[in-house]
Amino acid sequence: MDYFRIVGGKRLRGTVEVSGAKNAALPIMAASILCDGEVTLHNVPDLADVRTMETLLNQLGVSTSWDGPGTLHLKVEDEMNCHADYELVRRMRASVCVMGPLLAKRHKAQVSMPGGCAIGDRPIDLHVNGLSALGADADLVSGDVNLRAKHLVGTELFLGGPFGSSVTATANVLMAATLADGRTVIESAACEPEVTDLANFLNACGAQITGHGSPRITIDGVKNLHGCVYSIIPDRIETGTFIIAAAITNGEVRVRSARLEHLLAMVDRLRAVGVNIEREGDDVVVSSARRLEPTTITTQPFPGFPTDLQAQMMALLCLADGNSIITEKIYPDRFMHVAELNRLGAHLRKEGPTVIIEGVKRLVGAPVMASDLRASAALVLAGLVAKGETLVNRVYHIDRGYEKIERRLRALGADIERLNRATED
Ligand code: EPU
């Protein structure tokens, strides 16, 4: 099993290019099920999750082929199978994104319920309710959600839940509604840039979608969608992670393809704590040369502060000059990194969905355990600045969402290497 060995204390310097967005690529790949012709995607990140989606699509009769790094061709060859089984769905929750396309195109979807994960319960009731509102019959058999509809009919529907909008539920309903009869209006739709990217992709395939990027999306159903050539947006969470890497090491880094307009809430908090962030076209230049100020952060749906950067920001605030507060409003239990950061000498106290961060002068390296993708990123960031050696175990979590992270950090001057041991300690 792979692990990272990091020796902290190196200031990062240089230029890093951001990869394509995982959370845009996954639903867009799933949307190829809707298309009659070939889809060619550029800027697809080479990640474990992308490979898992590829395997699932292959099982569902979609042929895939890579054409150099980042370019993926997808084409439906066989429409018989409509079943996403537990084996793949439990490995990757984003597998549920095939539900809307299968239902709309093949009139049937059988998708295993994902179950909980390290960051929370993560139900899929909004997905099922939204698709039912379009006319699908739904039931649960042996842990699979079974959806059927001879044809879907557009309607007005509300998609908000107890924690606000849902990114992948919006994606599922949006994809299904492209082929429904008549007009669908999704109220309380997710506004995340990844949903906007999906809608732009679908429009490039002939869909009639307006209002994406706002909480009210209107979809006028069409008879069919064709293929297209499309380029995935840069990953805003990876961008944010590199920005924090520069800040935490008091370095100076140019992040290429940064699309800062997708990260304004984070930029606002980083400037508040004293990080210098300059925009130069699509690049951002980050530097930080002094001890940071503390701050208060609450995670929210877009355009609020993203939950997917909460752990990384916590790593940074561990070293601020005073007490900070982070409140998690999307996944109130997404704090597996707290105990691990404390192993590195942080002073963190969790109270319900809030963590109080008492800034310390330094972190000290230790072996730590990655629990999920973003928590692992936070541990790597902490390791970059901790005194001595940090061993981050179970880095398969980080490989799900960051392409060759250790090589790219090493190119910026970090002392980080990937090692392997046959069995886990
Ligand atoms: N929720 C419900 N019912 C549902 C769906 C969601 O109550 O049917 C709740 C969730 O439990 C959560 C909130 O609504 O409290 C928002 O969850 P959402 O559905 O938006 O999350 P998701 O679509 O499953 C995507 C990203 C996550 C990211 C969240 C929030 C993908 C593939 N995943 O998940 O990304 O944290 O949105 O922004 O797009 C990651 O990349 O590390 C990651 C976990």
A few lines on this structure:
The protein is an alpha/beta fold.
Descriptive overview:
This protein is an alpha/beta fold and 425 residues long. The protein is 30% helix and 25% strand. It folds into two domains: 2-19 and 234-424, Enolpyruvate transferase domain (UDP-n-acetylglucosamine1-carboxyvinyl-transferase, Chain, Alpha-beta prism), CATH 3.65.10; 22-231, Enolpyruvate transferase domain (UDP-n-acetylglucosamine1-carboxyvinyl-transferase, Chain, Alpha-beta prism), CATH 3.65.10. The chain is built from 14 helices and 24 strands. The chain has a four-stranded mixed β-sheet, covered by helices on one side. The chain is globular and about 65 Å long. The N and C termini lie close together (10 Å). Bound molecules: uridine-diphosphate-2(N-acetylglucosaminyl) butyric acid. Uridine-diphosphate-2(N-acetylglucosaminyl) butyric acid (EPU) binds next to α1, α5, α6 and α12.
